Amino acid sequence: MRDLVPDPGPELLRGLGASAGTAVGPAYRLADPPRLPAPRPVGDPEAEVQRAWAAIDAVCADISRRADAAADATSGEILRVQAALAGDRTLRDGVAQAVRAGHEAPHAVAAILAGHRSALLAAGGLLAARAADLDDLRDRVVAHCLGLPMPTLPDPGCPFVLVAVDLAPADAALLDPARVLAVVTSAGSFVSHTAILARARGLPTVVACGRALEIADGTVVTVDGTTGRVSVGSGEDYTPISAPPTAPAAEHRGQTSDGHPVALLANIGCAAELTGVAVEGVGLFRTELLFQHHIDPPTLAEQVQEYAQVFAAMPDRQVIVRTLDAGSDKPLPFLREHDEPNPALGIRGLRVARRRGDILRTQISAIAAAARESRARVAVMAPMVTTVAEAAEFTALCRDAGLPTVGVMIEVPAAAVRAAEILQTVDFLSVGTNDLSQYAFAADRRSGELADLLDPWQPALLSLIALCAAAGVAVGRPVGVCGEAAADPAFAVVLTGLGVTSLSMSPTAIPAVRAALAAHTVEECRAAAQQALAAGDPATARAAVTRI
Ligand code: PEP
Ligand code: MG
To answer: Which residue out of 107, 193, 260, 520 is catalytically annotated?
Structure first.
């Protein structure tokens, strides 16, 4: 007899895909931080100040030790910045003042850091993404004041999916791919430390998943870090595995089953992300991630050193360096924009050069200098280009500096509809579907509520990409896609059918995309593209393509 109560099936939670790839496993939540005890009067304020300072010093020393022992450069740098925050004079002074005003050490620390946290949240963007660093600092100092251990990662005895509000740098730096299969956080953003470090380790990650904390410990979940979906209770066939998926074992080129080549490239933020991965090249080197902690603009020498590390990892291979994409969701401390009512529509990406041409010129000189000393095939491209004139000006600047291969990103619909004209001045285009969706659909890319509009299978987005690809085919110049959508294997088939020549994604996503392309002829890809373009909505487009 059939069950009278139908099985409701897996429940789907939505967030933002922050690190591509999928993983299945039991979910376990990061332990709660220490609770503040009920306030009591302070007997000896000066002794209490010393207690607070001793706790701050101990935490600062502990974080510095972790920074020195960090497994990779990204983690080390992030922890060093956190240690610097802990050692900042204003924190000690503020805490002393609060204690002398009658607050016990843990309460004083919590109050002062709460003030700094509100300021960061009010600043928005990248600075707001640093709020978790202060929360972690507070928890560590409070735990130390109270003589309690700090909460650490769960240890269920098998690899697991880590669920948390957000991860502090100290926790994120400990993410060991041998133990943690994927990460889901209820807070965070694409640029939070959780996302940066998870990407560096190739861990599928979904952030800003509002209902993540409702997942009960031990429930098997499927995490899709590409689409931002978490399906809960979906792993009936799940058997615990003892080792995480490995990075692609050998390099081989992307192509359809009948040999039509499509370069499969990596999206990276620093050289460490290339360790141990075999890729054809780098399609998007997000240089702003290197400098997000800098108070002052990075010097020419600092930049040359950073770029040279990436180029050295890619001898004889292509590396497309994107010039600083600052502003809006990626504010840089040394490029603070003021008085902008709507930063996403303001001075961001290449537009920063309107005010700070010196920063762009220094960066281009640094890329050129590092390229001269390397064997990588270095190309450079600008983010957020809107007009043909902007593309022409950028190209001239780069060529004058000795960089022969210059392209622009297509992220603004105005640029997409003029792709053919832009291609008369540049060598290649790279479509950034994350921002192109945001601007074409007037939908904030960080909004979980508008995820349906930001679906890359939206026919209007496909039409814009098709315009760019056709413009490239017409003049025989490369048109790549480097937005997150390129990591969706079925979508990659469609993009190939549209005439896109390269796909750039998180390195961990490449094997699945390679396999999807290898399973179809180029004619089948073209048929898939036509079906997707003809569909009236994303679901129909997806369904039509999976039937091919
Ligand atoms: C994009 O917008 O699609 C893109 C690749 O750039 P970013 O995500 O860094 O804005
Ligand atoms: Mg972008």
So the answer is: 193
